[in-house]
Specification:
This protein is mainly alpha-helical. Helix content is about 70%, strand content about 0%. The model has no long low-confidence stretch (mean pLDDT about 85). The structure holds zinc ion.
């Protein structure tokens, strides 16, 4: 069982994580806007590395955003009192899993099924 104390601790962790992710996204966005302004691409020699940087930032940004969504979802589920319920099969999420990954919104079986779909060639 996931006791009340652990739940509160997870909530605190999620709130901290949400603040951290938001601030990271905030400092990333202005830099990205700048790269999209007109004039970009006029220096051909710099383009390749610029595109590389942009792609890298975008990937990091997307990852941060996705994590933020998961954190938000977990907090929303806490509010509704369904934090321990899997989003997909509505079965219970293993408390040990929530302990290790406070923003887990799926049970282990559903998560694994999802990963097989999105990452078909994952190496073991
Ligand atoms: Zn499930």
């Amino acid at each position: 069982m996931l006791d009340e104390e652990r739940l509160q601790r997870n909530k605190k962790w999620l709130e901290d994580e949400r603040a951290r992710l938001k601030s990271e996204l905030d400092c990333m966005s202005p830099a990205m806007d700048e790269q999209e302004r007109p004039g970009y691409g006029t220096h051909l020699a710099d383009s390749a590395s610029q595109v590389f940087e942009q792609t890298k930032n975008l990937a990091v940004c997307q990852h941060l955003r996705r994590t933020l969504e998961e954190v938000n979802r977990a907090l929303e589920k806490m509010d509704k009192g369904i934090y321990r319920v899997c989003d997909r099969c509505h079965g219970p999420v293993d408390p040990a899993r929530l302990k290790a990954l406070p923003y887990a919104t799926l049970c282990k079986a559903c998560q694994e099924r999802l990963e097989v779909v999105t990452r078909p060639r994952r190496k073991r």
